[in-house]
Amino acid sequence: MTGRIDSRDEARAALEGLLRLLGEGLGLEDGLEAADYSVELLARRRFTVHSTPLRSGGEARVVEARGVVLAAAAVLPASVMARIDASTRERLEKGTVLRVGDAVEPPVYLPRPVLEPGDGEPAGQKAIPRFVTYAAEGLPKTVPSGAAIRVYTPQGTTMIDQRILEETAEWLVLDMHCVTGWSVEGKLWLAAPLREALRLAGVSVPWEGWLLARSAGGYASVVPLEEALEHGYIAVGLEGKPLGRDRGAPARLVLPRLYGWKHTKWLTEIHLLEAYTDGYWEARGYHERGLVALEERFKIRNPELIEAAEH
């Protein structure tokens, strides 16, 4: 979807058009019907997310900035996918109609100046003293006393356990920036470098690919593997104490250069992948990499329009 949006009515029409195209492409006789409509302003009102839940389950979203469409996405439930005929399902598997849960195109990284440490707050962010708690899958009722993170690689499966994390973790000052526009800076995390934890677990890590992290509740985020190895940590403590339940105990990812939705809490699985696949928020239009310094909040499928709007 490309173009501009000048009003909420146009955004609603764009969502309805997206659902109509999806229904036709999937061969659904009764199509896909919107149940409601909402608008969310993010990053100090610089981005707008227009969304609608679907009557059959799932949701559709259009993301825009200053009227320019950045991304359009729809998440469909298994009940809808089960209604697709066999021939369309085969075409879906080959990616000829659309790709469900995968990137249609490689990530689009626009050239922008990088905000170096000391230059001030990143664009669209405001410092706050305390974290805001988000949990797409809900807070777990209980958490294990120690970490047990299963690592899946093309060569096999291994485990990062509490012992490995305790051997490699140290107290580090790390920042966190949420895509919605708040930042919590200067907090002291007890964190193990991800690369070292993988090494001690016996993982032979490739230099190219993607890392998909999954939580105990099923939430997932995806990170470029090089970014995760160079700047990623597994944290087990915060401000002199073990992680609390709301902060992701017993272990979570911390990726200080990336937005907070990438920092998977209640971490139980790490998958090393050769090809990109969407996580929870990436499937809803959020960026594949999410680099704070380049303000990579959302996927961009029409970079020509963005570049034109910035000049």
From TrEMBL:
It comes from Pyrodictium delaneyi. Pfam families: Oxidored_molyb. Residues 173-281 form the Oxidoreductase molybdopterin-binding domain. InterPro entries: OxRdtase_Mopterin-bd_dom, OxRdtase_Mopterin-bd_sf. This is Sulfite oxidase related enzyme. It comes from the Archaea.
